[in-house]
Amino acid sequence: MKPQIEKMPTLQRVFLGECRTVAEVRLVAKESQQINVLGICADATVLSAECLSQEILFDGKLNVKAIVQDNDGNIASLNYANDFADKFKNNVITADTKADMPCEVVDLTYTLQDNVVNAKCVVVCKVFALMSEECDVLTDCDDLLVKKHDALLCEQKSGVKKDFVVVDEVEFKHDFSKILLAETTALLNSIVCEQGVVTAKGEFFTCVTYMRDDRDVRSTVIKTPFEEEFSSSDADDECVAFGCVKTKNTKVRIEMSEENAKEFSLEISAQLVANVFKTQQRSFVCDAFSLKNHTQQNIKTLHSCCPKEYLCHETSANVVEQISGVDEILCVTNPVVNIQKTICVDSTLFVDGVVNANLLFVSEDKVLSCPLKADFQTKVQTKVQTGSDLLCEVSNVCVTQISVKIVRGAINADFGLKFAVNCFDCQKYLAITDVQLLGEKQNDDCGIEILVGKKGMTSWELQKYLGTSHEDLLACNPGLVLPLEQDKKILVYRKIN
Q: Which domains does the chain carry?
């Protein structure tokens, strides 16, 4: 008996938990002795993560932005970025673990003292790990009747990061004197592997809050497309790549052209993170038995987590707020989208989320602000086959459009949304890793054995139950149709020594 043993790669994507990090940022309005805060927001991005034995060390960038007003009615913006770092401990982490850590600011509080804003942020990082391993699996064996199974197993080929900068020259149709805030989020529309090159196409969506020459404050969303290529020697046409874009910084430069048209430049620095996967179809023994001997088998569970699709989905969110004393709507600032719940049912992903923003408005010649909260629900149809264990992740959620107006005395706000969905097909397989032959089976001296087979029983199930081969089963039961279409008596004739 010479068992054929093969190394079988497996990849499992596991949610390990959350890490809460507290970070502080200090914003100073240098030209004012005393200010009022009209709106404040914060966003965070994990830029790098290093996996060690039982812990992940990670660091990122925290951006805090505020719109303030002094006693003379002047409006200005305060922006400051601060680094943060933390570590996450878990006993399943090894040096070979690949970690993915999307994060968001879940709580932002601040204190104001004269012209200084002290902001305190709670950053929550969701820790996902790609756990890869190889195990010995029986693929064939002499003296045994074996049942084989074909499965798609996933192996990560490479992971790459690329820093890049995109500059967009924007011609603005309205007069403006100053940009107050420019907040950028990103979305990948497609990411493709071809001949060792990974090509990523996507869009930046920048919410620009600006002041016009008449001192009115307005906001708009500007779309900036981008396309980036980077080399990955392991990538080929059969590989699948998933990725995300992490925005690091947005700079705004205002210029006047000779035609006196208002123009400004957006300079967006970002980091593209991509993982390249390869799926392979492998055969292994999932069931076995011997006609002559009793057997003892060791079984292992194989996990398959194969990337299947990268989708872009568009939806919208709406909110109606009753706010008294609104004379004029100025703008909406700091739009942030949080995904609160995702549920996969068959081939459909149901997504619940909320858009949080600040509304600036004029009331009795004063500029005031209040929060807006718009809930939304949507569903995404995938191509993953019904019945598979579907895992979907939402990434790079962007606000693509903002519309706010007063309808019958109420504030009506509409937000256009767009986000990406990574779809994984997750399966579990029972594979035999070892078989031992024990003592010989005793002959019960029974010349005929009868079994009432139940509808749906397969040839393999009948062979195991009766201890016979497929050929002997058909020889004793001519015309037998398998799987059984109805309950049927099955006869087996044996030689008696």
A: 4-429 (no CATH), 444-493 (3.10.350.10)
Tell me, letter by letter, the H, E, C secondary structure of the chain. CCCEEEEEEEEEEEEEEEEEEEEEEEEECCCCCCEEEEEEEEEEEEEEEEEECCEEEEEEEEEEEEEEEECCCCEEEEEEEEEEEEEEECCCCCCCCEEECCEEEEEEEEEEECCEEEEEEEEEEEEEEEEEEEEEEEEECCCCEEEEEEEEEEEEEEEEEEEEEEEEEEECCCCCCEEEEEEEEEEEEEEEEECCEEEEEEEEEEEEEEECCCCCEEEEEEEEEEEEEEECCCCCCCEEEEEEEEEEEEEEEEEECCCCCEEEEEEEEEEEEEEEEEEEEEEEEEEEECCCEEEEEEEEEEEEEEEEEEEEEEEEEEEEECCCCCCEEEEEEEEEEEEEEEEEECCEEEEEEEEEEEEEEEECCEEEEEEEEEEEEEEEECCCCCCCEEEEEEEEEEEEEEEEEEECCEEEEEEEEEEEEEEEEEEEEEEEEEEEEEEECCCCCCCEEEEEECCCCCHHHHHHHHCCCHHHHHHHCCCCCCCCCCCEEEEEECCCC
Confidence at residue 492, expressed as pLDDT on a 0 to 100 scale: 82
Whole-number percent of the chain with pLDDT over 90:
24
Global pTM reads 0.79
pLDDT at site 169: 87
What pLDDT, in 10s, does the model give residues 307-356? 888 889 999 999 998 888 888 888 888 888 888 888 888 788 899 999 98
